[in-house]
Amino acid sequence: MLTNELKRIETKRIVRRPRLSEEVSIALEGQIARGEIKPGEQLPVEKALAETFGVSRAVIREAVARLKADGRVETRQGAGAFVALVPKSLNFRFWQGDGPALVELREIFELRAMIESSIAELAARRRLPADIVAIECFLHAMDDALASGSDGSEADDDFHLAIAAATHNSYTRRLVEFLGRHFSESRRLAWTMPGRNGALPEEAQAEHRLIFAAVAAGEPARARRHSHEHVRCAARRVGIVLADDLVSGRAAERR
Amino acid sequence: MLTNELKRIETKRIVRRPRLSEEVSIALEGQIARGEIKPGEQLPVEKALAETFGVSRAVIREAVARLKADGRVETRQGAGAFVALVPKSLNFRFWQGDGPALVELREIFELRAMIESSIAELAARRRLPADIVAIECFLHAMDDALASGSDGSEADDDFHLAIAAATHNSYTRRLVEFLGRHFSESRRLAWTMPGRNGALPEEAQAEHRLIFAAVAAGEPARARRHSHEHVRCAARRVGIVLADDLVSGRAAERR
DNA sequence: GCAATCCAGTTGTCTGACAACTTCGCAGCA
DNA sequence: TGCTGCGAAGTTGTCAGACAACTGGATTGC
Prior knowledge:
By secondary structure, chain A is mainly α. The first copy, chain A, folds into 2 domains: 16-83, Winged helix-like DNA-binding domain superfamily/Winged helix DNA-binding domain (Arc Repressor Mutant, subunit A), CATH 1.10.10.10; 102-253, Four Helix Bundle (Hemerythrin (Met), subunit A) (Up-down Bundle). Chain A contains 11 helices and 2 strands, in the order ααααββααααααα. Chain A has helices spanning 4-13, 20-33, 46-53, 57-70, 102-126, 129-148, 153-165, 170-192, 200-217, 220-237, 248-253, and strands at residues 73-76, 80-83. A two-stranded antiparallel sheet of chain A has the order 1-2. Chain A is elongated, with a radius of gyration of 25 Å. At the A-B interface, helix 4, helix 5, helix 8, helix 10 and helix 11 of A face helix 4, helix 5, helix 7, helix 8 and helix 10 of B. Chain A binds a DNA duplex through helix 1 and helix 4.
């Protein structure tokens, strides 16, 4: 006979009984996604759903609670549950699986361009001497990484964080910290691209110097332009061409 | 005596009883965010939580279900509920207590100005006819709210969401949806300010029209400028003066 | 020493009931 | 006719108690 340990593994692996509420919420999610229940329409009442799926009302409530948390459904006591017109509080998940698809990467680069250029501009207006020192410090760290051939993506992250900190707005700083975890994936590409023979990090570093110079000199428009161009080039380095209309950088230039 | 209609409005406005499960999930979220329960640690068992908060186990389960949906908590039947080691969707927490302090509000308005103006610009470049229809729809919804004197903050949120959707970049759209929860607090101020005698919502609505016109006409620079000015005025309406250096709007103008 | 079993504790599900709330229709009235 | 107020029916929110399914550690037996 099997030991307890094996039985447990066996149980976990094979007979992984899915939660009823999961099945129900997935089923409902599918119905909504397929348009069988359209935005603004009312879901069947809990009792009816319970009979349909052959489960208790508690399970239905838990399933609907998940859809509520995802912002796909809104409930009004006494009225019913309705498919949300505009999903309100979607979880800010970047990708579901292991990594982003190419089209998603393009959109991420667009977002980066938008946010980072705005932040660079604000940083150029507000930076204090201490901020300049901090940013320069990480710039040198990337120089060292380049010289030794090691991975400088961490210093890269820190460099952009330091710029965000120079805005002296805790919310922008925290937003960049938050997004940073996702952006760093797109930055890491530049440092760990096979072979690094294309001199990709060197290019990026040159752009970093331009951004730093503009921020340090207190030139907002230039900081915005260089930051925007940096993201644009970073995208091209991994084979993604950003649409020409893109974002705010060009407006600031007004050329 | 009040008519039914009035009673309903009154009820909606004032006696907005919060759901128990909401209160509990927010409280738990806070405990996790403040590190009172660290990643990997087990939450108190449902029965204990029920006693602590003085509610039934069903409410606790619903609250935990929301945290599960957010990826902050994982449950294992028979073992317990645990704070997730790697939160799937990080929580970008804006304030801990009931609301932001004044200095925080100022920073939030700055962030709003930065993000919303960039998004308005991109929306003006990319919007399709269907987007214009959607945005206009929420603009009218706010008109109706103004006419009836009811709370139009929801339509206000939707208006800005629709603009974000018009960028046709799923990440910017999701970021705005995500931040929207927090921004909506600062928007609600305009609609629920005591008495509304200062004609605050009317002012805001006029600004909304300018933004809409620019986006609909496909004029990025104008959209950015009006959006930026809108946030700036919104801040002033609640008594906050944004620093003159502020953000990207002025660079786009280049006046 | 080790495998099998047991047991207390925990989450998952079920059932039934009541409270709070919304919606709609109807009777009453001007 | 138009509207007002009331109430009934329907729906979600909350409560309480029970049992099932599962986990992790302690105990037992060899």
